[in-house]
Predict the 3D structure of the following.
Amino acid sequence: MKVLAMLVLALLALQGCTLVQTVEPWQKGNLAKPEMTFDDDQLERGYKEHIYSSKEASAGGSGLGGGGCGCN
């Protein structure tokens, strides 16, 4: 009996994963708000972009020359 009850509970829990959630057009405005972004702190985003571009050596890291090691 316990196994059957646990199986039913597991199936009910997994049912939530199969439902497809779509974003309706009137909900897209809420998702576009600045507070919905993962990196809303502009200073931290600037640091991450600086480190990324320094390590990639593609932009030199905020106008500075660099060798790609991130040590400039």
